[in-house]
Specification:
Blueprint lengths: L12 H11 L9 H17 L6 H18 L17 H28 L2 E2 L6 H4 L10 H22 L3 E2 L7 H14 L5 E2 L10 H16 L3 E4 L8 E4 L3 H9 L1
Antiparallel strand pairs: 1-2, 3-5, 4-5
Helix pairs in contact: 2-3, 4-8, 7-8
Length: 255
């Protein structure tokens, strides 16, 4: 079965792989590795033809696909030449793809929540006690008092009009996951051997979006083994330390 792959920008190798699987309408639990590997390699070739150098993680996944393909083509045999039943070589890839899709859907949900939050309108707090004191007045006034009362009424009406015009739209600047990852890396550059509390990676502990952004950023860094995270008790604090690939990632960035 053939299909065309439209060249576009992908966030990473698994983004490309999920796109290929969905385009081919394959069951993620029954991936036709041979077809997907050919399409994946074809896409990398197109990137090179357009003078776009694929990142190292694209090449690593390509090697994994080729290895899985070879294992499926060459069944394992015992000493008697009989085929040995073994674990499906695609199982590890399927688990990683399912994990990637969960994170991607969570990121899309957070993005929608952020857009909804940006549409919230508020107004600055005003002191309206002057308009609430003595709401009922008995008009037993002479002419001068009546004039003064009318002028006070006009002043109050003008003040209310100014308050109604004083609304503001709360438009929050979108903070990206890359910015939060950079902030966490900066903490470890300052103290490489430190073990930070999750709360220390959150800039605004009152902002639910900021908390969620730090959590998803740390999960992505854990996945790439740039940091290690540990939670000893349910709902307990999360401790974050440098991972085995943190310095390697820093060296790659310096190059």
């Amino acid at each position: 079965m053939g299909y065309k792959v439209k060249l576009k920008t992908f966030e990473g190798p698994f983004d490309l792989l999920v796109y290929l699987i969905e385009s081919a309408r394959m069951d993620i639990y029954d991936i036709k590795v041979s077809e997907i590997t050919e399409q994946y390699m074809e896409h990398l070739q197109r990137m090179q033809e357009l003078d776009v150098q694929p990142a190292s993680e694209f090449m690593v996944l390509a090697a994994n696909l080729i290895e899985i393909k070879s294992k499926m083509l060459l069944p394992r045999l015992d000493e008697k030449g009989e085929e040995i039943e073994s674990e499906d070589p695609r199982s590890g890839l399927v688990e990683r793809l399912l994990e990637y899709r969960r994170y991607k859907r969570a990121a899309e949900l957070f993005s929608q929540m952020e857009d909804q939050g940006a549409m919230v309108e508020s107004k600055p707090q005003e002191d309206i006690s002057a308009f609430l004191d003595d709401p009922e007045e008995i008009l037993q006034l002479d002419t001068d008092q009546l004039i003064n009362a009318f002028e006070a009424f006009l002043g109050r009406r003008k003040k209310v009009s100014e308050i109604r015009k004083n609304y503001e739209n709360v438009q929050k600047r979108k903070i990206t996951s890359e910015e939060r990852v950079s902030f966490i890396k900066m903490l470890f550059r300052q103290q490489p051997d430190a073990v930070y509390s999750f709360r220390e990676t959150v800039k605004d502990s009152q902002d639910k979006y900021d908390i969620a952004l730090s959590f998803t950023s740390i999960m992505e860094m854990v996945k790439q083994r740039q940091v290690r995270a540990e939670q000893k008790a349910l709902f307990g604090d999360i401790k974050v330390a440098k991972g085995e690939r943190f310095d390697q990632e820093e060296e790659n960035n310096d190059k």
